[in-house]
Automatic annotation (TrEMBL):
Protein name stated in the entry: 7,8-didemethyl-8-hydroxy-5-deazariboflavin synthase
EC number assigned by the record: 4.3.1.32
Entry annotated with the keyword S-adenosyl-L-methionine: yes
UniProt pathway: Cofactor biosynthesis; coenzyme F0 biosynthesis
C-alpha cells in the first residue's frame, strides 16, 4: 500500500472480510512507522467528579448524588492520588470527569460554590495546576465537551487533552439508542470539540467506541471524519479503538460485545486509513489474553496503564501488570 486510501476507497473496506490481508497490510504500515517499539504511559486515574448530566446507556462511571458522599474530590485527595502515582513511577495524571454536572444537579452547584468556583471546569483548572506544580505529574484532560475558551485555559495547565468521538452515527442518539438523552454525545458537538483543539494546536487524543450498535460503514465514516480534521491541523497524537464491554445494572447489560475478530478488523482498517505514523491504541485491560493478537493487527501503543488506580470507566477490567505487558509485547517481537 503506497498511499492512504481515498474516502471512497476507505468506504469500500466496510465490506471486506479478508482479515488476513487487512492485518498483513496494517502490520506492515505500523512497522514502517514505529519499528519494533510499543509505547505506554504510566498514569494515575483522577475521577474529579463522577456526576454527569448525560445518561449513556452503557456507562457505570457516572453516578447519582445519592451514590456519592461528595460531588467532587478535594484538592488534597487529588494530590494524594497523584503522589501515589509519582511514587510508583507514573508521569501522567488522567483527569476524567462527568460532563457539566452542575447543569443537572443542585448538589454540584452548591459544592462548587463552597469551593469558590463557578463551574466544574474552573475547579478542574485549579486541580490540574496543583498536580502539575506541587506533584510534578503531567495532566491529561478528559473533561467532555468544552468551549474553545475553556480548552485554551486548560492548555495552560495540561500536557494534552482528549475526547472520544465514539461514533458519527446519528442513529445512536435517537430513542432506543445508547446516546439518547445525552446531549454531549451528539456527533456534531464532539467533532466541533476535536476541531477546536486543532485550532488551538492542543495535542489531542480521540477514538471510536465499537460495538454499541453502529455499522462497519459508520465506523469508517467516524474514522474519516477524524482523519479529515487531523489533515487540517495535525494535532491528533493518538487514536483509540475501544471495544464496548457490557456492564451489570446498565440498560446495555445484555447487549452483545464485539468479538476479537471485529476488533482486529477495526484496528487494521484504522491503521490503513491513517497510515504508518499515527499512534494507534487498543486498551489492554479490555482485551485480556489477546494482547499479542492486537499487536499483530497494527497497534503501536497500549495507552495509559496504572500501577496504582483503577480504570474507573471500566472498573471490572484490571490493568495488566507492567512486567506482564512487557513480556507479552516481547513475545510479539516488540519492545515496550
Amino acid at each position: 500500500l503506497k498511499e492512504r486510501p481515498t474516502d471512497s476507497e476507505a468506504r469500500s473496506l466496510a465490506e471486506s472480510v479478508d482479515y488476513d490481508a487487512l492485518i498483513k497490510v496494517s502490520a506492515a504500515l505500523r512497522d514502517k512507522g514505529h519499528g519494533d517499539l510499543m509505547s505506554y504511559s504510566p498514569k494515575v486515574f483522577v475521577p474529579l467528579t463522577v456526576l454527569c448530566r448525560d445518561v449513556c446507556h452503557y456507562c457505570t462511571f457516572a453516578r447519582s448524588p445519592r451514590e456519592v458522599m461528595r460531588a467532587y474530590l478535594s484538592i488534597d485527595e487529588v494530590c494524594e492520588i497523584a503522589e501515589s502515582g509519582k511514587q510508583a513511577g507514573c508521569y501522567e495524571a488522567l483527569f476524567t470527569l462527568g460532563d457539566k454536572p452542575e447543569q443537572r444537579y443542585r448538589v454540584a452547584r452548591e459544592e462548587l460554590k463552597r469551593l469558590g468556583c463557578s463551574s466544574t471546569v474552573e475547579y478542574l483548572l485549579q486541580a490540574s495546576r496543583t498536580v502539575f506544580e506541587q506533584v510534578g505529574l503531567l495532566p491529561h484532560i478528559n473533561a467532555g465537551i468544552l468551549s474553545i475558551d475553556q480548552m485554551a485555559a486548560l492548555r495552560e495547565v495540561s500536557a494534552s487533552q482528549g475526547i472520544m468521538l465514539e461514533s458519527t452515527s446519528e442513529r445512536l442518539c435517537q430513542k432506543g439508542g445508547p446516546h439518547f438523552g445525552s446531549p454531549d454525545k451528539q456527533p456534531a458537538v464532539r467533532l466541533s470539540n476535536i476541531e477546536q483543539a486543532g485550532m488551538l494546536a492542543i495535542p489531542f487524543t480521540t477514538g471510536i467506541l465499537i460495538g454499541i450498535g453502529e455499522s462497519r460503514a459508520e465506523r469508517i465514516d467516524s474514522l474519516l471524519k477524524i482523519r479529515e480534521i487531523n489533515e487540517r491541523y495535525g494535532h491528533i497524537q493518538e487514536l483509540i479503538i475501544q471495544p464496548f464491554r457490557a456492564k451489570p445494572d446498565t440498560l446495555m447489560a445484555e447487549f452483545p460485545e464485539p468479538d476479537t475478530l471485529d476488533l482486529l478488523w477495526t484496528i487494521s482498517v484504522a491503521r490503513i486509513l491513517f497510515g504508518p505514523d499515527m499512534n494507534l491504541q487498543a486498551p489492554p485491560n479490555l482485551s485480556p489474553g489477546v494482547e499479542e493478537t492486537l499487536i499483530q493487527a497494527g497497534i503501536n501503543d497500549w495507552g495509559g496503564v496504572s500501577p496504582v488506580t483503577l480504570d474507573h470507566v471500566n472498573p471490572e477490567a484490571p490493568w495488566p501488570r507492567i512486567a506482564e505487558l512487557r513480556a507479552k509485547t516481547y513475545q510479539s517481537g516488540k519492545t515496550l
